[in-house]
Model the fold of this input.
Amino acid sequence: MAEYILARENGRVIPKEDKNFGISNRAKAAIREYGKDAVVNSTIGTLNDDSGDLIVLESVHKVFQTLGPKDYAEYAPIGGTPAFKEAAKKAAFKNNVPEGFIEVVATPGGTGSLRNAISNYTIYGDKVLTTDWHWAPYKTIASEIGRKIEVFELFNAERKFNIDAFKASVNDILAQQESIVVILNTPAHNPTGYSLTPTDWDNVIAALTESAQTGKAIALVVDVAYMDFAGDEDEYRQFIPKLSTLPENVLPIIAYSGSKTFTLYGTRCGAMICIAKTQAIADEFKRVCEFSSRGSWSNNAKVGQVILEKIFDDEELLASVSKERAYYRDMLLARGRAFSEEAAKVGLEIVPFDAGFFVSVPCDNPEEVAAKLEKENVFLVPLAKGLRISVASIPEAACRKLPAMIKAAL
Done:
């Protein structure tokens, strides 16, 4: 734990080093010393090829090469360019366009969407609800603006979505405060790879509809960062129209990221998209979220916005990007299946997995197990409840090898 000298703590617990990047740096050092073939680096949250190199969609890269200086050097409007907003809606919804009043605010990746939603739909000191297995920066984002993360158990005893725990937690928090932000990361949840089923979504919507009878404000933030690598792009969007059935005081917000879908990690291209019951609520969303943007990062990098504009303005180009992404999605899905199959063979328990960049293994001593595996040049991320393995960053052969090694370490 770092001690404060001149800086103020402000209720934050700030480690000396980010855990994920610290482990990743040790993995990179091991690669330099022993070579790529001797090291398994499953810490990285990007899609890499079988050699461990970052995959960038060639069709997207070609668009990048056509840009002129104004496309990347000029300021973008605080809320995003008009053409980007239309492209973001098309990218997020595809053929599953919801009913309602839709507004879009550009953000630096999905992270910016989460920050703005928490800032505007809770007050200082409030609790923000998410699942017990979750992306660790949720806590960082919340604590940085004076909120706390509260969790409910993602799975029940039958290893299904724990709707009872969800309902109880929502109602408990609403009994303590006047509004709530709920974050659900699906499909292809980080870090487990779980995706809410259509039945899960029906249950969530029924629960929030019931909780809304309190008259209090509920913001449902759906973090869809990995949606386009979960499987059929329209099938995994079928939950979106269901969000239109929520009551007026429940505001669905899609936290959309171009990082994964278009391999634009470094451009920080994202958007938050609301599905409001009234024009007044949509207008309010736009106003308050743009204000928060101005007070934090001001406006977003324009380059990613222009790339999406160009892709969605050209049907042939869009088809090319979609085809190339489908190829790499199939590669990723094969890796996930390989890990699951080998885990079953060796008797290694994994958290219910559907698709995505990550698989998780529950255990009681994750730090100890991770340290033991590092001695074998296997690098993965210890979480509060287990181990996270990035199948996105390692080849299928490593996905088949790892379960037995983890089982032995356990």
Summary: The first helix runs from residue 19 to 34.
